[in-house]
Fold N-Acetylneuraminate cytidylyltransferase.
Amino acid sequence: MRAAIIPARGGSKRIPQKNIKIFCGKPMIAWSIEAALQSGCFDRVIVSTDDTAIAAVAKEYGAEVPFIRPQELSDDFTGTIPVTKHAIEYLESQGETYDDIMCIYATAPFVQPKIITEAYEQFKNSQADYCFTATNYAAPIQRAFKLTENKRAKMFNPEQFNTRSQDLEEAYHDAGQFYWGSADAFKQLKPVLSEVASPYILPRYLVQDIDTPDDWILAELLYQALTANGNLDKQ
């Protein structure tokens, strides 16, 4: 059996009510719920939340909310893997055993049902503990620099200053959409960004962090442009 777990904590500070704020016509969390349902991959699609308003919206769009997440797993410092572990163990306490789990973020409006399915196939074929979405950096990370106390530039890797861009190794980062994994991997709290995981590489135009009001505006504009050009399936 397979389940999708969508962590959706209340109390967002930078974007109030972020998980249920309207994004391109729907509550933000609705995009993740509908993508999971439309993929046909899951026996259950479950939202883990501590917030009754989020729970109500989640149910409206077809997800289940079989429990309210405990407060000790709902602070600013609890990661998604412990939250997913809690959901798996709750289901097990109800007599349900799951082999494969997908933890999908509530703020992932660019996630596509087809990508969920393809990533699952990659996960099973790779025999990895996890498969997660990733994309490459737009610029070489070896050329990154920081600002000093007196507002000067200081490279993190100054030895790479004269290396040609094409000779630098390409780097990738977590795209923040979802993590496929075995139930055992989540329960053991295995780290995702490690050699136990197989990254599913997304094009950069499908990746957008949404952490600030400016991010939100950019994400809506990008979503509208991608759907208008046929590069993103409407749900």
Q: What stands out?
A: The chain has six helices and ten strands. The chain has one domain: 2-135+173-228.
